[in-house]
Amino acid sequence: MSLWVIQHFIDLGWCSTAKGRTCGAAAGDTHILTGYGQGISLAFAPIFGYASERFKKSSVLAFAGFIGAIGSLPFAFTQKAPADKSNFAFVTLTGIGQIGMIVTGMTLVNGVHVDPKYRGSVAGVFSFCGAISIMFMARLGGYLFDAWMHGAPFVLMGIAHLAVALMSIYVRAVTPRLEKEDAARLEAEQEKQEKEAKKVDENHLQGTLFSTM
């Protein structure tokens, strides 16, 4: 975001690229856009948390992915000044999509089909993959910013949002089968526990009868 805003002011000739010079106008617009987007995203965090419990998690995640793509892709090709109202709308949608994927994604990968003893490991891998993706996207986005166009990082973000949305739809499609498998697994575990408890009771009863004799 900051790179895109600064480059816009440099292209207009309003900022000098001389060493040691800063551009207050660019810094101001950057802070306004990023602050607005982050503030909106934080406000939507509890909403997505509630929605992920109220509705199908995969459906909520797909919704977040599409919202993020609607914000990122048009923003990549905008020719408006950074402080234009349309850019605030794009940043808002992008922020909502990002926080939605973060919150709902964590609840989805740690769903009921994940054994509780592995949920911490799953959450760790989820966060690790996110960190790797951030580094990869930053490196590739920076390269494409110079080699292709200034909105390239936002194109990558939009593609990533769409990919998550499509994969969420796939998960939604296979969820009924997973739920049946979960129900069968839980039923089998309950039967096993009941048999073990019955066996313990029988052994205890036999021990009591033997001691009375």
Task: Outline the structure in words.
The chain is mainly alpha-helical. The protein has one domain (2-181): MFS general substrate transporter like domains (Growth Hormone, Chain: A), CATH 1.20.1250. Helix content is 83%, strand content 0%. The chain has six helices and no strands. Helix 2 packs across helix 4 (85-109). The longest helix has 61 residues, at 152-212. The chain is elongated and about 95 Å long. The mean pLDDT is 87.
Short description:
The chain has 213 residues and is mainly alpha-helical. The protein has helices at residues 2-12, 24-54, 57-76, 85-109, 119-147, 152-212.
Kindly provide the name of the CATH class. Answer: Mainly Alpha
Q: What spatial form do the alpha-carbon principal axes imply? A: elongated
Quote the CATH topology: Growth Hormone, Chain: A
Task: Give the overall pLDDT as a whole number.
Answer: 87
| Quaternary structure state of the chains depicted | single chain
Low-confidence segments: none
Helix content: over 70%
Question: Which structural category fits the helices and strands?
Answer: mainly alpha
> How many structural domains can be distinguished in the coordinates?
1
Q: What share of the residues does DSSP label as strand, in percent?
A: under 5%
